[in-house]
Design a protein that fits this description.
With about 80 residues, this protein is α+β, with helices and mostly antiparallel strands. The protein is about 15% helix and about 20% strand. It contains 1 helix and 4 strands. It starts with 17 loop residues before the first strand and ends in a 12-residue tail after the last helix.
């Protein structure tokens, strides 16, 4: 099995990268891939060969829960 680590080149991660349908119009978004270990990898879609960040399933669950509850809304500034 491949060894996965934070900061590895995202293009070396063998998996299906998924992004939100909302961002398909401009192509700038975060993409996620589920790893065989159960962890989740994140990458910047504008830099698919750049570094990937890895999170455990529990870490992703906590983040998504906070996002659904609007805990990070103040960090987003939508352009004109």
């Amino acid at each position: 099995m491949q060894e996965y680590r934070n900061g590895m080149a995202a293009n070396l991660i063998d998996g299906r990268w998924v992004k939100s349908r909302k961002t398909e119009a401009n192509g700038q978004c975060v993409e996620v891939a589920l790893l065989p270990t159960g962890a989740v990898a994140l990458r910047n879609s504008t830099d698919p060969n750049g570094p990937a960040l890895l999170f455990t399933a529990l870490e992703m669950d906590a983040f998504l829960d906070g996002a659904k509850k609007g805990e990070f809304d103040a960090m987003v500034v939508v352009g004109n």
